[in-house]
Structures are given as C-alpha cells and as structure tokens.
Amino acid sequence: MKSGKCPKCGSSDIYRSHKPGNEGRIGNWLFIKGEFFRNKGAHLIHYACGQCNTIESYVADDESMQNIREEWIPMNPRKSKRKNDE
C-alpha cells in the first residue's frame, strides 16, 4: 500500500495515518516493553484502503525496528539480526 495501490483489491483510494515527518505522533506508537520509567516502543505508519477497508502498518524508523529486534521473537532465527548475534 505504500506505493499507493491496495494489494488486496487494487484500488488507489489509499490514505496515510499522518503527514511524512510526523511519525512520532501519539497514536502511532506501539508499546514493546516497559521498565520503571523506561519504555521501549516503535513508531508506526498506517495505510488504509478506502475501497476494501484493509489496513497495513509499517515501522517508521531504524530505531523503532531495533527495539523490535531486541524484544520480539524472530520467526526465522537463522536469518535474524538481533543485537547479541555475532
């Protein structure tokens, strides 16, 4: 959907959650892990199709993706690039 076309129905009636450059706005944040006054999260960008109502979400920046890599379980551990792997 990032290309402006819905992969499900082919429509070009696509909407983005917010203007480019404002990825850190409230409501577009995924909570990952919390410790005493230390929260880890990821900023997301959402796209919605106005025709079939499909929504896709994407990680907005490298720091957010790194937080996910550090805390989530990889689906394919052999190809994963976790922080402690080397």
Characteristics of this structure?
globular, mainly beta, 86 residues, 4-stranded antiparallel β-sheet, 1 helix, 4 strands
Tell me the span between the first and last alpha carbons.
34 Å
Q: How many helix segments?
A: 1
Radius of gyration: 15 Å
> Could you tell me the number of beta strands?
4
Low-pLDDT runs of 5+ residues are none
- Tell me what portion of residues adopts beta-strand conformation: 25-35%
Structural class: mainly beta
Describe the protein in words.
The chain has one helix at 62-71; strands at 14-16, 29-35, 38-49, 55-59. The radius of gyration is 15 Å and the shape is globular. Strands 1, 2, 3 and 4 form a four-stranded antiparallel sheet that branches. With 86 residues, the protein is mostly beta strands. The chain has one helix and four strands, in the order E-E-E-E-H. Helices cover 12% and strands 31% of the residues.
Topology:
Elements: E1 14-16, E2 29-35, E3 38-49, E4 55-59, H1 62-71
Antiparallel strand pairs: 1-3, 2-3, 3-4
Brief synopsis:
This protein is mainly beta and 86 residues long.
